[in-house]
User: What shape does this take?
Amino acid sequence: MLRRLDRIRFRGHKREDFLDLAESPNASDTECGDEIPLKTPRPSPRDSEELRDPAGPGTLIMAAGVQDFSRTEFDRLNEIKGHLEIALLEKHFLQEELRKLREETNSEMLRQELDRERQRRIELEQKIQEVLKARSEEQPAQPQQPPKGQSQASNGTGTDRRSQGLSSRIQKWFYERFGEYVEDFRFQPEENTVETEEPLSARRLTENMRRLKRGAKPVTNFVKNLSALSDWYSIYTSAIAFTVYMNAVWHGWAIPMFLFLAILRLSLNYLIARGWRIQWSIVPEVSEAVEPAKEDLTVSEKFQLVLDVAQKAQNLFGKMADILEKIKNLFMWVQPEITQKLYVALWAAFLASCFFPYRLVGLAVGLYAGIKFFLIDFIFKRCPRLRAKYDTPYIIWKNLPTDPQLKERAGATVSRRLQTTSSRSYVSSAPAGLSKDEDAGRFHSTKKGNFHEIFNLTENERPLAVCENGWRCCLINRDRKMPTDYIRNGVLYVTENYLCFESSKSGSSKRNKVIKLMDITDIQKYKVLSVLPGSGMGIAVSTPSTQKPLVFGAMVHRDEAFETIFSQYMKITSAAASGGDS
Assistant: This one.
């Protein structure tokens, strides 16, 4: 019976049918190549005969135990490997949490606060001791009858005590009346507060942009109303405002008029805050539709939301930066002919304020501002060509450059000088019988030197006209495991016969990559990150020398580069095929 049970239990494939662990392929690409696979020794023919012999159940059970032991040892190693990876990940996350906690809890700040509290405690103890001492001195001592010989001495000490008690009372009264105000003038060290920075959040970013828009709405409405007054959007309103303003300036009531308008605006705001419905605006307000906030967003929707908010923030910050840079360049004599006009105007205003009475100067400035705002600007806005010729503030503001414009001008000037000098030197040194193509191939260079020297190519190999300056991209070599070799930033070029990648890091030419177009086995568009919307910004190129395709990612002109590489590849392959047939 036991023999029959053993046969049923160990029925299955023979030992020779199982693959040896040393001969089987790896389970995945992520497993480390340095692992030593477990290899169980093959049984000899004699042992196999003993295993097949039904008369030896003990031997059969021993062999099965060895096989189960080898399998369990292999499973244990895999389990230990998984636990080790989990432990490393937990260690990494714990280190990040520890770093964040150290940044959040500033020990130096806590130590400073502790020292300040100790100093306050010492001062309070001193004040309490002074108060207790003053009270003890005020308490009258019980009268004792001194001897006759000491009567005069006791009279002297009594007067001293009375004077000390009077001075302490005066000090106490002064401290009770004015001590609180004196404490306010006590100098204390300045507290350095460290603001905690919030992590990046798409919802928080969108909410801040909406808050900024709501906060700037009163200012934008005020500017729109002023522009409507200047444009005579409502003829009656603009005519009344112009008449009232000119009369106020003529009679010297301009400042009281503006103060009265400010008080009137605050009064209206008080009534609105109390619930009154008061709406007055020259320009009719258009209510914008508010989209309800979605709770559950997909990854693509979150990414698109962040892109929209980032685009608005970029445009807003760009406009603010342009205004600030123009004001800075106006006062820093970047454009001397423009700053000279401001310089002369300031001297004229200074001399006028020195020699003319303030009433006359204020009247002239007020009348000019009213005529300029209500009449001249209205004419200039309706006649743009007239404004471009005679509106001096508008011309000055438009001609003021920003910092990026100054950099572009400086770069264009330097490149023009380099082109003129290089053309002169080349005309003087170039041989007479050299054609245009040979000249371009010989003297074409990248940022680091001549093209053919960098990639070790012949002199007739030069970039095509489409990619003469190259395409910015990053090379992702998935055969490499080191981060420095896995991703490289650089520029991609296409020549007649080669695909050349120039690394942006300074160093030897080993970081550069040269691929022969004839060796390419497959080329296709590639999407590096699947969570991003769109079709991606990468190109995958397969060659026999690489196990996994080389990916050129983060290419802005991906479609243009793909068409150029594919057409050149088809051109070379068709030429090679026609040459082979002939």
